[in-house]
Amino acid sequence: MTIKTKITELFGIEHPIIQGGMHFVGYAEMAAAVSNAGGLGIITALTQRTPDDLAREIARCREMTDKPFGVNLTFLPVVEAPDYAGYVRAIVEGGVKIVETAGNNPQKWLPGLHEAGIKVIHKCTSVRHALKAESIGCDAISVDGFECGGHPGEDDVPNFILLPRAAEELKIPFVASGGMADGRSLVAALALGADGMNMGTRFIATKEAPVHENVKQAILAASELDTRLVMRPLRNTERVLKNAAVERVIAKEKELGGNISFADIAPEVAGVYPKIMREGQMDAGAWSCGMVAGLVHDIPSVQELVTRIVAEAESLIASRLAAYVRP
Ligand SMILES: Cc1cc2nc3c(=O)[nH]c(=O)nc-3n(C[C@H](O)[C@H](O)[C@H](O)COP(=O)(O)O)c2cc1C
């Protein structure tokens, strides 16, 4: 038995479970592990310093899996944009068939991606952005609720409302993202109208996640009360795990109010990922983490995690939920 949806069909994958792009986590090892387990693994383009590095990472991933995998393209709110054209070229020439876009409207890149036969799933945090993405021709949406690790947007609508709202409005398939951890999440996502789920934080706490052990232990130790929102005054809100650096950012935000600029918090947020993810310096800066950390209690292999999620979801649907229905 397995769970088939429009998302498994669209991407040619076994289970409707996606691993979202994650800075300094979404390497070939992570993506291949998820794809080999029957989900959709995603390499994070901007973690690769250059388009050539991304091309090599794609080739490396292909050596580790013959299943479909994707690449995340995050459009950052920065003055000097990365070489997006180069990254897109690496994706197309690398034969990747699925791209997750996020951060901003991907319209400029859609024709080139679609011409190459690439399916685009756009991740966004509001119904209005999801509808925009549908109108410009995206193939699917990842609906990222307020719970999510990373950038939840500025509307603060949790998935219990956001997902059914998306279901009311969207014609293209979508997955639930943010706060997803287990079979219960998958069944809830399906019940609320989604065709699958996307996970970030949960996938970091796995054996194969190519990050320092301290990161996995920090997620394991964290409860649902341990994330904080930073950079709201800059309208670039990020949900992060609380630590000494995050406390400093929050103190500066309180002190400077509306006068704060990126430069004020750069020591805590700019270029900190390698120190955290590679070196395990857990107080080196602010790093994305979802409230779902409160539901993470072990560090299984990706295969164990995916198998467990699917088995739990199937049993929930076929036994627990079915038993509520009486003739
Ligand atoms: C450490 C970390 C880094 C992330 N980096 C990115 C990124 O570079 N681009 C992106 O689109 N999303 C990024 N995300 C968001 C995830 O892809 C996903 O949408 C989010 O984690 C879902 O929420 P969850 O953590 O509750 O599962 C990141 C999340 C985490 C936890």
Question: Can you describe this structure?
Answer:
The protein has 327 residues and is α/β, with parallel strands linked by helices. The chain has two domains: 6-209, TIM Barrel; 214-278, no CATH class. It is built from 14 helices and ten strands. The protein has helices spanning 6-11, 28-36, 51-64, 84-93, 110-115, 127-135, 159-169, 183-191, 201-204, 213-221, 244-256, 262-269, 273-278, 302-321; strands at 17-19, 41-44, 69-74, 98-102, 119-124, 140-144, 174-177, 197-199, 227-230, 238-241. The chain has an eight-stranded parallel β-sheet with strand order 1-8-7-6-5-4-3-2. Strands 9-10 form a two-stranded antiparallel sheet. Helix 8 packs across helix 14. The two termini are 25 Å apart.
Q: TL;DR?
A:
The chain has 14 helices and ten strands.
DSSP summary, beta strand count: 10
CATH-scheme architecture of the largest domain: Alpha-Beta Barrel
- What percentage of the residues does DSSP assign to strands (E)? 5-15%
Helix content: 40-55%
Note the quaternary state here: single chain
- Average of per-residue pLDDT values: 97
Task: Write the element-wise H/E pattern from the N-terminal end onward.
Answer: HEHEHEHEHEHEHEHEHHEEHHHH
Rg from alpha-carbon coordinates: 19 Å
Tally of DSSP helical segments: 14
- Would you tell me the structural class of the helices and strands? alpha/beta
Major beta sheet, specifics?
Answer: 8 strands, parallel
What order do the strands of the largest sheet run in, or round the barrel if closed?
Answer: 1-8-7-6-5-4-3-2
Shape: globular
> Would you tell me which CATH topology of the largest domain applies?
TIM Barrel
| The CATH fourth-level homologous superfamily of the largest domain | Aldolase class I
Bound molecules: flavin mononucleotide
Assigned CATH class of the largest domain: Alpha Beta
